[in-house]
Design brief:
Radius of gyration: 14 Å
Strand content: 5-15%
Distance between the termini: 30 Å
Shape: globular
Low-confidence stretches: none
Structural class: mainly alpha
Order of helices and strands: HHHEE
Strand order of the largest sheet: 1-2
Number of helices: 3
Helix content: 40-55%
Amino acid sequence: MTNVETLLNLPNVRCLAEEDGFWEMWRSVTCETSVRGNVVPDAHLAAFLRLHGVRRLYTHDRDYLRFDFLDVQDPLA
């Protein structure tokens, strides 16, 4: 808990949450990209990020490459 609180108290960190408009964003993302099975949670995160204007995602999970609006960077590459 202390580590999380320290991180959240940094000036350039904000806690994101689902807000009004999420359902419409989810529908938009899932209409643009085929989503089923293991990709459903990825699409949820992608829609969440898009709603908040996040464009770059650092992940080793290549499934996120299917979302054209995300600039996916592999931190292990």
